[in-house]
Fold this sequence. Notes:
Oligomer: single chain
Low-confidence stretches: none
Strand order of the largest sheet: 2-3-4
CATH topology of the largest domain: Heme Oxygenase, Chain A
Distance between the termini: 55 Å
Number of strands: 7
Number of domains: 2
CATH superfamily of the largest domain: Heme oxygenase-like
Radius of gyration: 23 Å
CATH architecture of the largest domain: Up-down Bundle
Helix content: 55-70%
CATH class of the largest domain: Mainly Alpha
Largest sheet: 3 strands, antiparallel
Bound molecules: fe (ii) ion
Strand content: 5-15%
Amino acid sequence: MTSLQSQYRARRVYEVTPVASGAVALRLSDQVVELGKKEYDWFTKAAAWLPSVRGVADLCRELEMDEAKLPRFLTALEKTGLLYRTDKVPESVTGIEFHARFNAVLNSWLTEAFAHPFWDRMMSGRGSKRLFTGWLIELYHYTKNANRHMPLSCASAHEKQIKLLRAKHYAEEWNHYHYFMKALKALGFTEPQIADSVPLPMSLALSNFMRQAARQDILAYSICSAVLEGTTVDRRTYNPYYEKAVEIYGVPKEAVAPIYAHLDLDIQYQHSDLFLDILKHVDTISAERASVILDYGHQLVEHIWMWTENIEKYYDKESNPVPRRPFNLNLD
Length: 332
Ligand SMILES: [Fe+2]
């Protein structure tokens, strides 16, 4: 790796939108940067080259740029905000400073998690009651699986105060899957039908990812939990979806009422403040640890997107049983 490569890293680009005459708008967590077609191509190549072990000559050949001009080009990219200098990253941050960093990116993460076309489809009337039901069944499984990852997170926490906060969260959440069971019963399912059903692979992957995070670092687990709690803090973001489901897909109001009751309860518990409460007990986080924790948070965002993809693909297919049945030698 050359010295130029160790000096810079590319910021995360959340969205690339075409604007007039081939130019594009790149959305970062804190700003939008516009680049011409050619500059965007250069930026993409430089961003791929930075963490690689390829030499300067290799990149300059790709960019058709004189090697002497490369440092100036990278400085210009840094000024736009698309690159950052690694020597400007603090060696460590306090827990509270880390939370401010997390808060600054959370909205971009949530937008990315819910950018899946499923949501647009459901809201525009191109969805179905079957898809709505599928989403609820998988939410049931995910919420029930909290009993697999939440106690593990308590066990993994080393600090007494953090362990107690995680245990309190678990005590408040452990039986919330009953709200989804209630909603599914209002949709005509029996309790054994739902309780004995098999979750989709991505529903299991999501809860196993939480288990993996708990084993690696209690803050990695807590950031994932905070992202999930972040999806439920504002009634305005989820109400329209459930109201549409009643209006367009004929979902009975009794199936939506337990969902609202659950969301209201989570707000009442102030679970969205838990991550800050935990971080108040952390004096210092090294840059390396901070980067691992943030990476877990962003991976969770990608899991939510893939989970949605799995739900749409499975429940969209009319021949797939709803709910998914366990394997049965006589039937299968
Ligand atoms: Fe809950």
